[in-house]
Each structure stands twice: as structure tokens, then as C-alpha cells.
Design a protein that fits this description.
Protein name: Flavoprotein involved in K+ transport
Oligomer: single chain
Radius of gyration: 24 Å
CATH superfamily of the largest domain: FAD/NAD(P)-binding domain
Number of strands: 22
CATH class of the largest domain: Alpha Beta
Pfam families: Pyr_redox_3 (PF13738)
CATH architecture of the largest domain: 3-Layer(bba) Sandwich
Shape: globular
Organism: Rhodoferax ferrireducens
Keywords: Oxidoreductase
Strand content: 15-25%
Largest sheet: 8 strands, mixed
Distance between the termini: 42 Å
InterPro entries: Auxin_biosynth/cation_transpt (IPR050982), CHP04046_FMN-dependent (IPR024000), FAD/NAD-bd_sf (IPR036188)
Amino acid sequence: MAHIDPHTTHYSVAIVGGGQAGLSLSYYLQQRGIDHLVLEKNQLVHSWRSQRWDSFCLVTPNWQCNLPGWSYAGDDPHGFMVKEEINAWLEGFVVHVDAPALEGVVVHKVARSSDNKPFSIQTSQGTFTADQVVVASGGYHKPIVPRLAERLPAHVTQMHSAEYRNPQSLPEGAVLVVGCGQSGSQIAEDLHLAGRKVFVATGDAPRCARFYRGKDVVDWLADMDYYNMPVTQHPLREGVRDNTNHYVTGRDGGRDIDLRRFALEGMELYGLLTDLQGNELRFQPNLQANLDHADGIYNGINASIDKYIAAHGIDAPPGGAYTPVWQPAAERSSLDLAASGISSVVWCIGFSPDFAWVDAPVFNGRGEPVHVRGVTQQAGLYFLGLPWLHTWGSGRFSGVARDAQYLAEQIAARAGAVDCAEESELLLS
């Protein structure tokens, strides 16, 4: 990391968060000669090291890994890096950026008394000030575990997906995976492939095909310019930020995740988990609806690819709609914990944001920042690295560089405007 003067407490820009977003912005600020400091409460790119299970791999192809000045340069652009490869690639990015960063520093509060005053940044290592602040700590802060968890028997091991590492880390017995988004479906598959008895409480997560009509679906969507669509042009507008990610996997070269096929192989599927009464788990009778919804999204994406192929006269292998390979015989609304042999529960229902430390009037009723492409209504305060901050890739390796470059331009423009205003005041005084 770049040398930092320990006596300096004021910076033009403070970046809170040293992940892919914060480091990307540091890269562009260095290009512009803007002094700044990155504050990271753990290690740089910590979340990739700590919140991924052993068999984790990317769900988007390697060619989409495009951080500033640090694109994927391996020999498998259409493959999917595994955990160790991702961390090695990110370690290279850390060295490449050489950001002025402090690790192990917790930010307790960011506030400003008025627009013409610097921001005060209270941390575990004292107070810093900055003319502008960028919150680049992501949107996945607090693991979501429902209060129902408190009523499960003490002998049942519980963990959040962020803590899961491998099947061997769980005690013998069946496992209940709650949630079927990207983490839930992949962890369920990981356990299933290891020969564990798996129960899955499904939700309304969508899914997509890995490959369709001769190419990875991601390649088709890139050709269709989907990844350049700004949130303002998406049919759901900002509502798309609430969507669950489609489940699919890059494991073993990439494939679909089809819960119905797993059910044929012995995985037990249920609807949405709602309650625990005595020794019985209770579920909504909506398994069929959840599976049909996921398949409907799957077929809808493929249909859009069909239209694109037809409109452009592309020679591609034939396509077709997915036909369910399994149907639930009946909806089951309860499951006896003891009879099922469940010894572990893995909660895979996501994270909630926690920006309580940002003391600024820029949040909506749900505690989410209100912004336009990361720029808030409080002058000099920005957000970076959030899902659909601007495009689909804003919270991913594929789009965060574009967002960081844009914010660097906004920061430089504001710094220049402030300097001009101060010079005018001096001339008039």
C-alpha cells in the first residue's frame, strides 16, 4: 500500500470501504492527482476472502472481470474462476492500485455540520476530515437470520451462508437450506453432491440457463447490450434493485441449477418457511408456484435471445422452452424436525444494508441511499458499489469501473468548482 503520513488527518476525499469499489475509485483519483484516503475495517477485498464457501466460483464468465487497469488475463475467458483464483486475481489488483489505505479501521460516524464545512469521519483510530466522502462499503452488511431461529432446538447447528464453508464443517445428519437464491441454490448443490440429505425451503428466486443456443447466456445478453442498460431505462426502474439474483452456477465449467432435477435425485423441496410450532417447521404451500416462477423467468430470458437471433439472422443451434422434469405430487406445509433427521440449518436469505453510521439526510424510509448514479443530494457525498447503482454490473467486477470513473469525474468537477468559488471570495474580500 502507498505510504500514508501518520500526521495527516485531512484529505480531499475519504473512501469508506476497501473492496473492489473503493480501490477502483482510488485508481481513478490517483490518475487525477486527487489526494485521498481509503478506510477499511478489515483487510482490503476482505469480503471475497471471508464470505465465500470452499467450492465457490464465479457465476459470470471470466471475461467480465474488468477492474480498472486489471482485466482478466488468463487462458480461460469463458470459464469461471474458483475462490483461490479470484483471491489471487484480487490480490494482484490490490498491488496494482497501491491505494493510500488504512486497514483495520472502523468508521463510527460520517457527518457534516453544513455544506461549506468538511465532513467529520470518526473512526477507531481517531477523527479525520475530508472535503468529499464516498461510501464504498457495499450493501451487504448484516446477515439476515429470522427470529424464528431463536426457537430451534439447541442441538441444531445454525449458520448463515456467509459462515458456510463445506459439507464436512456441518455435523452428520440432514441439512435444511433456507432460501434458493444464488447462495442457497449453490450451497444446496454443494451439500447434495457430497451425498448429504438436503431439504430446501424455496422462495421466489428466479433462475436462468447457463448455456443456450450455442453460447453462454451472459454472452448473448452482452451482445444484446443488456449490461449497458442504465437503471433509468429498466422496466422496473429503481425497483430492480430489490430483485433476487438469478440462480445458476459456474461450477465444473458451468451448468444450470435445476431444483426439480435435484428433487428427482432425493432432495426434498418445500415452499417458503414461515414458522416453527413445537417440533414442526411450517411452510407456505407455494412450492409449485416458486418453481414455476423460476422456470418462467428462465424461459423468458431464452425467448428474448430467440427474438434477438431471429431479428439479426444469426446462425445458431435450435432452442426451445424448458420442460419441467419433476412436479411436486402435493404441497407440504409442515416438516417434523426430529423425524427428518435435520441436524443443521443454513440461512441463505441474504443481507440487509446498515448505513446508520452515515449521518446525512440522503436515505429513504427503508434506510437505502437515494442517489442518481451514486451522487446524493448532499453535496460531496457519494455511494459506490451498490447493486444496480447505474447498471446491472455496478456491484460486480464488470461494471464497477465505469461507475468509479464517473464518480471520479464528479469529485474532480466539484473540487474544481469549490476552488474557483474560494478564489472568487478571496478576490472580493
